[in-house]
């Protein structure tokens, strides 16, 4: 697991560097915010659910990090929201899925978008996946990389996580970045 996590950390840093560079910034721009000690790996198991083929393995959500790298098995169940429709992601054990997270969306001032996704349970087979989350420290300031036409106010990862937890407790779901809009 340590070797896998290290490889995912290196890949996340490389991909984030490319995305940051595409915005016209040095690839090191996120290194002040994110480092491997604040990132984590999660192992997911979704048991088979013969009761209902419409059962969520994971409810619709966006990731609260900068970048997520997902390795999944051949079972499938991951779906992305595209043009207001849920689209199944064809499972490929030899490929990785990379999702932009909420913090990268805020930092890029909406140039990159966090993707809403969910996991549907399989009726007959359990599903496994491994997700690597590129996260900042809780006290890192998440401001926009741009200085004009800002969309979001500055906030810390701690502020964001606390707001998400409050929303889930009060409303039953994550509200997300709209809580941090300037307008």
UniProtKB/TrEMBL annotation:
SUPFAM superfamilies to which the protein is assigned, alphabetical: Clavaminate synthase-like
Domain spans labelled Fe2OG dioxygenase: 35-136
InterPro entries associated with the record: IPNS-like_FE2OG_OXY, IPNS-like_sf, Iron_ascorbate_oxido_reductase, Oxoglu/Fe-dep_dioxygenase_dom
Highest taxon of source: Eukaryota
Family annotation (PANTHER family): 2-OXOGLUTARATE (2OG) AND FE(II)-DEPENDENT OXYGENASE SUPERFAMILY PROTEIN-RELATED
UniProt protein name: Fe2OG dioxygenase domain-containing protein
Annotated source species: Malus baccata (Siberian crab apple)
Lineage of the species this protein comes from: Eukaryota, Viridiplantae, Streptophyta, Embryophyta, Tracheophyta
């Amino acid at each position: 697991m340590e070797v896998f996590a290290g490889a995912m950390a290196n890949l996340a840093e490389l991909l984030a560097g490319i995305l940051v560079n595409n915005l016209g910034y040095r690839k090191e721009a996120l290194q002040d915010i994110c480092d491997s000690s604040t990132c984590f790996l999660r192992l997911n198991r979704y048991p088979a659910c013969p009761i209902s083929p419409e059962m969520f393995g994971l409810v619709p959500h966006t990731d609260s990090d900068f970048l997520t790298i997902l390795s999944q098995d051949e079972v499938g169940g991951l779906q992305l929201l595209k043009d207001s429709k849920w689209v199944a992601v064809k499972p490929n054990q030899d490929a990785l899925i990379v999702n932009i997270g909420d913090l990268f969306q805020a930092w890029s001032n909406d140039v990159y978008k966090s993707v809403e996704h969910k996991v549907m349970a399989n009726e007959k087979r359990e599903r496994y996946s491994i997700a690597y989350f590129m996260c900042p420290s809780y006290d890192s300031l998440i401001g926009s990389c741009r200085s004009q036409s800002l969309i979001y106010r500055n906030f810390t990862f701690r502020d964001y996580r606390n707001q998400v937890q409050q929303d889930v407790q009060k409303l039953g779901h994550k509200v997300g970045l709209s809580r941090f809009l300037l307008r």
